[in-house]
Amino acid sequence: MERPSWAPPDVDIEQPSISRIWDWFLDGSHNFAVDRKVARQMLRLMPEGPRMAQASRAFLRRAVRMCAAAGVTQFLDIGSGIPTVGNVHEIARLADPRARVVYVDTDPVAVSHTRQLLAGDPTTTVLRADLREPEEILDSPELNGTLDLDRPVAVMLIMILHFVPDEDDPARVLARFRDALPAGSMLAIAHGSPTTENMPDEHLHGAREMYERSVAQVRLRTRPEVEALFDGWQLLDPGVVWIPDWRPDPNDAGPRFDIPNAGYAGVAVKL
Fold first, then answer.
1. For the packed helices 33-45 and 201-214, what is the interaxial angle rounded to 10 degrees?
2. CB under 8 Å to 119, separation ≥6 — which residues?
3. What's the Cα-to-Cα distance from 99 to each of 11, 96, 129, 185, 196, rounded to whole Å?
4. For residues 107 and 105, what is the distance between their CA atoms, to the nearest angstrom?
5. 252 pLDDT above the threshold of 60
6. Quick one: average pLDDT of 168-190?
7. Are 46 and 28 in contact (CB under 8 A)?
8. How far, in Å, CA of 225 to CA of 227, rounded?
9. In a 3-state reduction of DSSP, which class is residue 24?
């Protein structure tokens, strides 16, 4: 395959990526043939995949607006993916022009294109780092040059925690972020679920196994398990619910969001 001009030189264009598969689901253009191949294989078993991606992005927008309405003007979006319309900084600045944002991702394509998008913007930056190494994020000059950790920060973890297996102790990771942030900080989580209502179990298992062989291990969690990830935070109404059911916005209504197996979501505050 010919390397696209926009692909960073250190990217393996024959290795599929979580961020680029998601980009394809969201009708983006920064993905490779190998990403599209895996995505199409997934769609045979899970045809609602793009609608799930759209629903999670819609939740992100609603959560950002809610955090901004609560007076939080600083955002840390971990697992931010490839830039698409409706990024955190765009939504937050509609509510408060002073909003400051740090994006974090492990995918070099996602980081490269976010840097291009943010070029010349002193209040928004991007960092290539792994959620499982919270100190790398919290101690980075990118974060500390953009956010003030003495003031509340909203941490956005949208469809990323199911790539953190139990052996990597996601509770420990989240506790480190919680302990580093002041009262009034907020946490938004959207998480894949092992429970479906409209998909045969064998299709779910097949899609999961295919994804794990091609891209990354997946740890889907039940609603109680997702609720446990908010330990030490105060969950806000309506608690942890199906993603489309979290404070639905009429502007998000329509057939593409009518998906009962989109995963779970919730937002909480540190008291």
1. 160
2. none
3. 31, 6, 22, 14, 37
4. 6
5. yes
6. 97
7. no
8. 5
9. helix
Cα(79)–Cα(246) distance, integer angstroms: 20
Pairing relationship of beta strands 100-105 and 124-128 according to DSSP bridges: parallel
Q: Report residue 75 as tokens.
A: 């955002």
Domain residue spans of the chain: 18-269
Of residues 84, 88, 104, the one with CA closest to residue 96: 88
In which residue are the tokens 């919730």 written? 266
| Residue 271 structure tokens | 């008291």
By residue count, the chain amounts to 271
Question: What is 18-269's CATH superfamily?
Answer: Vaccinia Virus protein VP39 (3.40.50.150)
Q: Is the pLDDT of residue 197 over 60?
A: no
Transcribe 126-170 into DSSP letters: EEE--TT-HHHHHT-HHHHTT--TTS--EEEEES-GGGS-GGG-H
Which whole number is the average pLDDT over 27-45?
A: 83
φ and ψ of 38, to 5 deg: -65, -40
Exposure string over 123-134, b if 16+ CB within 10 A, otherwise e: bbbbbbbbbbeb
Q: Are 266 and 227 in contact (CB under 8 A)?
A: yes
Q: Is the pLDDT of residue 254 over 60?
A: no
pLDDT, residue 200, reads: 55
170 near 51, Cβ under 8 Å? no
Please give the structure tokens belonging to residue 184: 């009034």
Phi then psi for 229, rounded to 5 degrees? Answer: -65, -15
Q: Which residue has the tokens 């930056």?
A: 125
Task: Report how far apart, in Å, the C-alpha atoms of 174 and of each of 23, 154, 180, 226, 250 are.
Answer: 26, 13, 10, 12, 32
